[in-house]
Each structure stands twice: as C-alpha cells, then as structure tokens.
Write a structure and sequence with these properties.
This protein is α+β, with helices and mostly antiparallel strands and 220 residues long. The protein contains four helices and twelve strands. The chain is 19% helix and 43% strand.
C-alpha cells in the first residue's frame, strides 16, 4: 500500500484555509448608507450647471430650466435659476436670501437647515439626517461605475414617493424626485467641478438698489 505524505507547509496551508475563508466571509459589505456617506463626504465644494426637467405623469416635459449651483460645506449653498424664470436662492449658513428679479424683491430670513432647499439637504453629507428622514437602499452593486441610491421617505405626508441619487465614477450625475402625484423632477448635473476653492463671498448677497426688501422673522 502506498503511503502519501503531506509536507509541513502544505499541512499548514490546509489548516489555514478554513479559517481564512471564515474571515473573508465575516467581512461585511458596505451598506447603502455607508456607500452614499462615502460619496457625499468626498465632496467639500461643488460647482455645476444643472438642467432641471419637470416631467408630467404622462411623460411630457412641462418645463426645462437652466440653473447654476455652488456648494461649499458645511453651509454655503447657491442655486440660481437662469431660465426661464430667473430666481436666486443663496445662504451662508446664517442668512437665506431669495431674490426674484422679475418681482424686484428679495426675501431675507434666518437660515434654518430643517427648511433648506432639498438639493442642499441631499448633498450636505449629513447622512444621519438623511437616514432619519429616508430609508436608503442601494440599487447598483458596490463596485459598479454607476452608483444609484433610492431614498424612500419615512414620513407618510411627504410629497415625494421616491428620490434617486446617481453617481458615475464617483461624480454626481443626476437626482430624480418622484412625487406622489406622478410628476417627476430631474436634476442633471453637467460641467461638474469638485473640491476646488470657492470664495465665501459667493454665498453672500447684496440687494440691488430700488428693490423691495422683505424680512421674515419667524421668532415673532
């Protein structure tokens, strides 16, 4: 009868294989929340042209807008609609200005992050706040070039049924807002510049002369 001998090194390898396999299996994949958190926290500043489409439930485009967006964490946010109806929303994290040139007026109020623009909320990187308001699910695989996340509102009275945030090669690509009434808003981000310096002055607003200034004081 032939005898088979296993070398000491081979025996060690055989001994280690089950343990190594168990260790590999015990390392959890990143959750959708962790993955979205990592992508958002990679953004310190963001400058982008935004094409906004408002799409009716039957698929027809109701309105198309051109927007310029600037973001500087933690609180700087600039959202200027250029066409078809000019409007500027800008905050430095302390004061919020809403300038409507067609009405020749600017509304000034204290900044309140809980009532901030949805784009600012979604891109702030405050994943704890997002997780408090939404159930976050990953649609695509972790190693995919295209990363898509669905945010399902927890509040029954939310106007949104679903929000989808999309990245391509770690760059913000688009956000879809699906309303319960069937209407959809699409934000498509173009000419994106990430993590380049943006002056704080971009998030200040000096009202033009001869316009109406409305100051809202919610403390009253």
């Amino acid at each position: 009868m032939k005898k088979f001998y296993i070398s000491t090194a081979a025996a060690c390898m055989l001994t280690l294989l089950p343990a190594t396999s168990l260790v590999a299996q015990s390392v959890p994949a990143l959750t959708a929340m962790n993955r979205l958190d990592r992508l958002l926290n990679d953004i310190a500043t963001l400058r982008s042209d935004v094409v906004q489409l408002i799409v009716e439930s039957d698929g027809g485009v109701l309105e198309e807008s051109e927007i310029q967006m600037l973001l500087k964490k933690p609180d700087g946010f600039y959202w200027e609609t250029l066409t078809p109806f000019p409007e500027l929303i800008v905050t430095n994290g302390s004061t919020l200005w809403n300038y409507q040139p067609d009405l020749e007026q600017v509304v000034i109020e204290d900044w309140d992050s809980s009532r901030s623009e949805l784009a600012a909320q979604l891109l702030s990187g405050n994943i704890e706040s997002l997780e408090g308001d939404y159930r976050i699910e990953g649609v695509t695989l972790e190693d995919s070039e295209h990363q898509e996340f669905e945010l399902l509102p927890k509040a029954a009275d939310s106007v949104y049924q679903l929000i989808s945030i999309n990245f391509m090669n770690s760059e913000l690509e688009s956000i879809y807002l699906n309303s319960k009434n069937g209407q959809q808003t699409v934000w498509r981000f173009e000419n994106v510049v990430r993590n380049q310096a943006i002056a704080d002055a971009q998030f200040e607003f000096v009202p033009p002369a001869n316009i109406e200034i409305i100051e809202n004081d919610y403390a009253q």
